[in-house]
Design a protein that fits this description.
alpha/beta, five-stranded mixed sheet
Amino acid sequence: MGQNKALMPFLGKPLIARIVERLRPAADELWIIANDSEPFQFLGLPVSADLLPGMGKLGGLYTALSVAGEPLVALAACDMPFVSAALIQAACIMMEEEDLDVVIPRSAEGLEPQHAVYRRETCLPAVYQALSEGKQRMISWFDAVKVRELSLDEIRVYDPDGTAFINVNTPDEFRRAEELAKTLESG
């Protein structure tokens, strides 16, 4: 993209502001994980740099789990303009009802670890162990915890438009997502 995707204007405001607004109904606490906090000060949210720099997305999850004060931590990528608070809330309920450590959607593209919910107490040591073993895949530690995958049918209940996992990695994807948002949000 040539610039920080999170700060690109999406329907007139930074994409990260849209994501924060969409997640606010599902969250008692919101954090931004970013190595440069200054660009995100306008959000009025705490920002943490990676606690283990250079460890990729799994290092970002480790940081989120470490800084969060709440027992359940939802992770959402900064390039997902349709992140679903309803889906995250449903995952939190399932987590409590079924005594789980991770509730993760499985979309048509596969597991969606950047739109999942994690139990801080059990996941933090498992993620740290994976990182200490040099593993960086987001799911490389799942065998150490109780994981529940959400099926496409379960996801559809909370994401009937099928948009929650759309991410924007190119200018064309960004433009198409904006057009889709205009269509969905106008009617």
